[in-house]
Amino acid sequence: MADRRLLMIPGPIEFEPDVLAAMGERTRSHLDPAFVEQFGSALERSRKVFLASSDSQPFVIAGSGTLAMDMAIANLVSEGDAALCVDTGYFSARMADILGRWGARVQSVGGRLGEAPSTDEIVAAIKAHRPKLVTVTHVDTSTGVRTDVESIARIAREHEALVVVDGVCSVGGEVLRQEAWGVDVALTASQKALGTPPGLAVLVASPRAMARAKSKKVASVYLDFAQWLPVMEAYEARKPFYFATPAVNLVAALDVSLGKLLAEGMEARFARHQQMADAFRAAWRAMELKLLPREGLAANTLSAVYYPEGVDLTFPARVQGVVLAGGLHPEARTKYFRVGHMGAVSPNDVVATVSAIERALGRRGEGVSAAHASLLAK
Ligand SMILES: *Cc1c(COP(=O)(O)O)cnc(C)c1O
Known about the structure:
The chain is α/β, with parallel strands linked by helices. It has helices at residues 17-23, 33-49, 65-76, 90-101, 119-129, 149-158, 178-181, 207-214, 225-236, 248-264, 266-286, 315-318, 347-361, 366-376; strands at residues 6-7, 57-62, 82-87, 105-110, 133-137, 139-140, 145-146, 162-166, 185-189, 200-205, 302-306, 322-323, 325-326, 336-340. It contains 14 helices and 14 strands.
């Protein structure tokens, strides 16, 4: 029988048939007018999905989310610059590593499992360390903790620091308003809530970030904004331009997927992610399963859930018909599992996933019932 397991991990996610069909089309020349249109359109749509200003600069580059992180930092940090990393887990730690490799003097704030540092702690850290750059992980996929990006961006601006948001597990699912919140670089990867197979890094940079980058010499050719800026500008003006071959089929698929996001509408999409997450949270409560994030910090794009007594890390493999993820944070890797709920996730997916988990635990349906009630209450 065909593999009909539902992919409910925090990326890659389930992709829509028309997005996958775009992947399978005949590969065009990167200079073909039809591709020029797709790339130009994908760039314009990226700006809209990020709710970024019309003078912000989108970049769509072949690579994963980690490349997007590396690229943002490479273009904004000079040797010896102070940088503050708001640490909510594994991916924040990766950002701190990248900052250090590009020569920043890195200070981290937070770092407690399942927690996010308070605004007071962040202000104190900024005053003590005087960073030129603050990085924050919107949703740390290792912990399911969501940070208050709006407040952190405001605090950073008040102290004249640029703000880089790792939105790999948020853009297209969690509320992120790049322009209104004053975020300088927001970045993500195609395979998470953008709903496109893995392989594209997507960044949107504010005019302030572009100005900072302009004054910098980047010690990498592929990561240098200056190499890619003429490419992005040309395609948006519907002209071809070669620097390095774009991932033609992936860009075509991204354009289809972003078109679907915008057709749903970003506000409707945020609301749907909230509803699906609420239904999952109702189920976890009814099943008396404890979440890894502290109350009030749980993301809408995934759940990180502790195994109940007597259940170990072999559990996700025993859940039938649904693919789940194990733990990732080094402090608790073997103690919890993760369920991704981003992208086209529907009420049916929620109920199917909760039901599969309950059956594997030998439960009788309290979770499904609670998820139902939550979905009906909307
Ligand atoms: C997935 C993820 C990354 C890394 O993305 P890759 O595409 O795996 O390189 C970085 N940050 C966050 C928050 C993520 O969820």
